Each structure stands twice: as structure tokens, then as C-alpha cells.
Automatic annotation (TrEMBL):
Region (Disordered): 26-65
Signal peptide start and end residues: 1-23
Molecular function in Gene Ontology: carbohydrate binding
This protein's record includes keyword Signal: yes
Single GO cellular component term: outer membrane-bounded periplasmic space
Record InterPro entries: Bact_Solute-Bind_Prot2, ChvE-like, Peripla_BP_I, SBP_2_dom
Species this chain originates from: Bogoriella caseilytica
Keywords tagged on the record: Signal
Gene3D superfamilies: 3.40.50.2300
Subcellular location: Cell envelope
Designated name of the protein: Monosaccharide ABC transporter substrate-binding protein (CUT2 family)
Length: 403
């Protein structure tokens, strides 16, 4: 078992971080917001002004095409189910397709939906740059397009975007690392008697073809930069650029392999690793597997580095509950699905969906009107409050690590 110089991990009080999706401010505004108000506003009102004519089409005559990237991530299955259920409850038909992380498959699926004359498209892309032909075809056919959580880029034919405050996700991930190292308190304020360090950290980022991955990384690096500058944090591998640390397709196995290589190259002998910035839970689990296989842990109290995450996947929530993974970022995809359904319904009723950000998301051709949702930091001590009490998981699921 590896030992750790890190003796002060900070108090583990219930800590929920809601970083604002405030109207007109958007993702880039989250970097300075560290207010940890546990009275999180979870207003799920998705009403839109949808004045319709008496001769509006019956919902049962309308179809929404829903294109999802993969079934290998738990969250995309949940997202798809939530969107489909919401649309069907509103009376619409749904054509739901998963592309299994294969770009040509997703292109073909969208071509088919457009050929079948669906009335609106909700698209969670594999590669946001790869669908310009399909987006043009949709525009030519008069089909509005909603980008779902991943921005569709390099095309003027994107009508709306529903997502979370992605920059703030990265801010929260970095803050969870600083909290785990004892450098900030439960209010995310610097600790006066914080351990001096230096602390060794390694960095991971998401897939380079996912626009969100860049927002996550930028938010995290902007937050960690002062600690790099003053020597509190160091990256022994020297790999700090996005291109060096990105994991194509968010693959767990690739993250595990990279972590294994880092450990072999930079952490042989008594070299310490105190933290790993991981942008998503599957990557976190791959990283933790590599660490365990190399003799680290088994828990944070017993030498496991502080590892961040995202998406509150049940397997990672269980690891957090056991003191193995330090944190995850909860993005309530039920609310995201609600916003996607509300946007689709607005378009189908001949109206415009409500945006709360019209400045941030430039896709290379246009600034896409967007609706941003808040996020929450989940640590061991607030799993019940954030995830069980809200009905996202049961305690039995947390205990077993299975949904």
C-alpha cells in the first residue's frame, strides 16, 4: 500500500456547489462564483410562451427525431429515456437512435430521420463538427435542430442548445481537488493554515471532438492556475496542455492506460501523487483501477489520491461513498431532458424556446441561443442530500453501486 504525505484532507461537511446558469451570463461567468448555498434553486419550470392557432397540428401527427451518441455511458441511456418519455407524455411520436460512438452511423441515422420528415431534431453528437451536411439538409427541409448537451459546430443551422454551465463544471472539479487537498474550506475559501505542499497532480481532459471538454478543462485550469503559479501544485509529467491530456471518445480503458504509463514513468519508488483531475466518472474509474493495480489506496485515507469526476454515475457514487473516489459533479439530466422537451415543444407549436444565454456558445458560424442548467458538487457527506433525497438514486443503489 502506498503511503501519502497528505495528512490534511479538510473537513468533509456537506458541500453542494451550484454554479450559476444565470440569464445573460453563461458558462464563462462561473469562474468567480464560489458561493456554497445549500438552498439550491432547483426550479424546473420549463414553461414557454407558446401561443398557438386553433388549427395547430395535433401532437400525435408530429415526430421528434432524437439522436444519441452511445449506449456505453450510463448517462446517455438515462438522457435518452428521459427525453423520450417527456416527448411521449406531451403526445409526440419519437424516433430514438443510438449511434454507438460511430460518426457514419449517426450521420446515416440523421439522414434517415430527415428523409422520413421528422418535425424537430434533438441531437447529442459524437463529433460536433461532423454533421454539417445533415444540418444543412434539416434546414432545407424546415426542420429545427436542438443541440443536446454537446454543441453542434461549424454550421449556421443550429436553432437552440440545451446544456449545463460547462465552464462551471470544470471550476467545480478543480475546487473539489483543492478541497480534498485541504487547500480550501467548505465554503471554498483558502485555508489560513493549509498544508504547504507542493502537491503532485496529473491532469486528464475529455474527448477533443466534444466541445464541452474544452469548457471543462478551461474552467478547471483557470481555477488551478494560481496554485501552479505559486508552486503549491506541480505536474511531474509536465503534461498540462489539452492536447496532451485529452482522452478520445471519453474511453475508460484509454484513461486507465494513460494513468498506468504516468505511474510507470513518473511515480516509481517513493514519488507521491496527491490528486488527479478527471473530467468524467468512467475516466475516474479507469484512473482508479490503474492506481489500485499499482498499489495505491485502497481509500483516500489510506493513500489513494484525490480523484474528481462528473455525471454522478452510480458506480462512481458508490466509490465516493466508500471513500475511494473523492468527488463527482451531478448534472441532473432529468432537468436537461425537461428543457429539451420544452424547446422541442416550442418549435413544434410554431414558437421560440426560452434562452437564458445568448452570448457564450459561438459554434464557429453563429452564437447559438442556449439554456444553461446549474450543477452540483457531490462529496461523500452530501450523497444523501444531493442524490437520494432528490430521488435520483435509492440508498440501495448507492450501497450496491448498481442502478
Amino acid at each position: 500500500m502506498r503511503s501519502s504525505r497528505m495528512t490534511a484532507l479538510g473537513a468533509g461537511a456537506a458541500l453542494i456547489l451550484a454554479l450559476g446558469a444565470c440569464a445573460g451570463e453563461g458558462a464563462g461567468s462561473g469562474g468567480g462564483d464560489t458561493d456554497v448555498d445549500t438552498d439550491v434553486d432547483t426550479d424546473t419550470d420549463t414553461d414557454t410562451d407558446t401561443d398557438t392557432d386553433a388549427d395547430a397540428e395535433d401532437p400525435g401527427d408530429l415526430t421528434a427525431g432524437v439522436a444519441m451518441p452511445t449506449q456505453t455511458y450510463e448517462r446517455w441511456i438515462n438522457d435518452a429515456n428521459n427525453v423520450q418519455e417527456g416527448l411521449e407524455e406531451a403526445g409526440y411520436n419519437v424516433d430514438l437512435q443510438f449511434a454507438n460512438d460511430d460518426i457514419p452511423t449517426q450521420q446515416q441515422q440523421l439522414d434517415t430521420m430527415i428523409g422520413n420528415e421528422v418535425d424537430v431534431l434533438i441531437v447529442a453528437s459524437i463529433d460536433g463538427t461532423a454533421l454539417t451536411g445533415q444540418l444543412q439538409a434539416a434546414a432545407d427541409a424546415g426542420i429545427p435542430v436542438i443541440a443536446y448537451d454537446r454543441l453542434l459546430t461549424e454550421s449556421p443551422n443550429v436553432d437552440f442548445y440545451v446544456t449545463f454551465d460547462n465552464y462551471s463544471v470544470g471550476v467545480a472539479q478543480a475546487n473539489s481537488i483543492l478541497h480534498g487537498l485541504g487547500l480550501v474550506d467548505d465554503d471554498l475559501e483558502p485555508v489560513d493554515d493549509a498544508p504547504e505542499g507542493p502537491f503532485n497532480i496529473e491532469l486528464f481532459a475529455g474527448s477533443p471532438d466534444d466541445n464541452n471538454a474544452h469548457f471543462f478543462f478551461d474552467g478547471a485550469m483557470d481555477t488551478l492556475e494560481p496554485y501552479f503559479d505559486d508552486g503549491t501544485l506541480e505536474v511531474p509529467s509536465g503534461q498540462t496542455d489539452f492536447g496532451q491530456v485529452a482522452i478520445q471518445r471519453w474511453e475508460q480503458e484509454t484513461a486507465q492506460e494513460r494513468m498506468e504509463n504516468l505511474l510507470t514513468t513518473h511515480y516509481s519508488g517513493d514519488d507521491e501523487l496527491h490528486a488527479v483531475l478527471a473530467p468524467a466518472d468512467p475516466l475516474s474509474r479507469g484512473i482508479i483501477t490503474a492506481l489500485r493495480n499499482d498499489g495505491w489506496g485502497p481509500t483516500i485515507d489510506e493513500g489513494m489520491p484525490v480523484v474528481s469526476g462528473q455525471d454522478a454515475e452510480i458506480a462512481s457514487v458508490s466509490l465516493i461513498d466508500q471513500g475511494i473516489q473523492y468527488s463527482t459533479i451531478f448534472k441532473d439530466t432529468r432537468l436537461l431532458a425537461d428543457q429539451a422537451v420544452a424547446a422541442a415543444q416550442a418549435f413544434l407549436e410554431g414558437s421560440e424556446p426560452e434562452a437564458n444565454d445568448t452570448e457564450t456558445y459561438d459554434n464557429g458560424q453563429i452564437v447559438v441561443p442556449s439554456y444553461l442548467l446549474d450543477i452540483e458538487m457531490v462529496l461523500q457527506d452530501n450523497i444523501t442530500e444531493a442524490l437520494v433525497d432528490t430521488g435520483y438514486y435509492t440508498q440501495e443503489q448507492v450501497d450496491s453501486g448498481q442502478a
